[in-house]
Amino acid sequence: MIPAELVASETAAWVWYPPDAEIVEDDDLLLVRWPEHFGQPPSLVRIDPAADPERVLAVATEQTRVWGANRVTVPVMLAAPTGLEELLLSRGATPYETVDVLAADLTGPGPLLDAPDGIELWWQLNVRTVLDGAGVALEAFGEGAIPDEATARELARLNAADLDAGVGTSLVAYLDSRPVGTAGVTVVGWTARLWGGAVVPAARGRGVYRAMLQARLDLAVERGATMALVKGRVATSGPILRRAGFQAYGEERSYRLPVA
Prior knowledge:
alpha+beta, Aminopeptidase, eight-stranded mixed β-sheet, three-stranded antiparallel β-sheet, 11 strands, 32% helix
């Protein structure tokens, strides 16, 4: 089993935002204002475990006001500042999402999945696949928006550059010629970060997520990763990942904090 402290440190280092996002950063935090098509309020994507939670929330809420938003997403990670969750609840924050933090050792045979036939997978390397992936995410999560064609073309270019560089990219799954799933993988050092896994409600239970998981793990091993790390939704992907051999290391809870 992978040491818990290693999983916690890799989870804390997992920070991502698109190049066209607006950010505010210091030693204690990283706050992101997402591009409009993400359909997300500002989010704290990094909080130093030793930071003062009072200061972190003060900086985040004030900047969120400056940006004209009325709420901010705040995660309570495996290594979170002491008292952060209690402080959020005392200020009227509401639960947004709870995910299992899971990891798998890729140095051995690795997880084997019984992904069914008939599911077609394509990496998102052109406008069509990017738009199809965005449509799946919108239908599955109920958030975000479809990017315009120019944005989709730029996303496809970035995906292709990442794939060529050995970093990874995102894919879209088709069932009966209809886009039904999307998921991504990013390889950083020896860790494969699996993210954005989503399947539209009508196609769930048909092996789409398993097929996308296998494709991402195959790419990760090919790129030299020795550990796969994923934040799986407790009620949906979490059970699939556990059955695939991933080990759970705890929960990460996110809250939406209102900004007056």
